[in-house]
Amino acid sequence: MSYRLLAVVLCLPLLSGCSDYEWGWYVLDPSTEQGKTNLGFLLAGFKDTIYVSLLSMVFAMLLGLLVAFPALSDKPWLRAINRVYVEVIRSIPVLVLLLWVYYGMPTLLDVSLNHFWAGVIALTIAESAFMAEVFRGGIQA
């Protein structure tokens, strides 16, 4: 047995006593009134999350298919536009895109967006770049 492994085995019981953290699962405990309320909020948001996810998946597939077609073109400028879109969108973190769509787009375009449609638009844009690559690779295979 190596000395490092022996040191780890001997120190592990000592260090495990240092972690006296208590997880706060009581916040979601359905046997308490606060837990029932908090769990209800989470479950109500779960329904909206599913709706946003499903809508953005459908729209991302459609937009991704449209974005994939220029990558298959013989014209270099169309392929360049496709590459720029795909690489730029894929490099933006989804949280940043969500914030830009929710706070930036209404300011720049003078439109009103609620949180639901801002989420759908941001996730559609983010996923369409990945879908475009999936469709391009599938068509070229």
UniProtKB/TrEMBL annotation:
Family under the similarity heading: Belongs to the binding-protein-dependent transport system permease family. HisMQ subfamily.
UniProt xrefs under InterPro entries: AA_ABC_transptr_permease_3TM, ArtM/GltK/GlnP/TcyL/YhdX-like, MetI-like, MetI-like_sf
Alphabetized SUPFAM superfamilies for the sequence: MetI-like
Gene3D superfamilies, alphabetized: MetI-like
Gene Ontology molecular-function annotations: transmembrane transporter activity
PROSITE patterns assigned: ABC_TM1, PROKAR_LIPOPROTEIN
ABC transmembrane type-1 domain mapped to chain residues: 46-141
Transmembrane segments: 50-72, 84-103, 115-135
The protein, known as: Putative amino acid ABC transporter permease protein
Keywords, in A-Z order: Amino-acid transport, Cell membrane, Membrane, Transmembrane, Transmembrane helix, Transport
Main location class: membrane
An annotated GO cellular component: ATP-binding cassette (ABC) transporter complex
GO process annotations (BP): amino acid transport
Localization: Cell inner membrane
Membrane topology qualifier: Multi-pass membrane protein
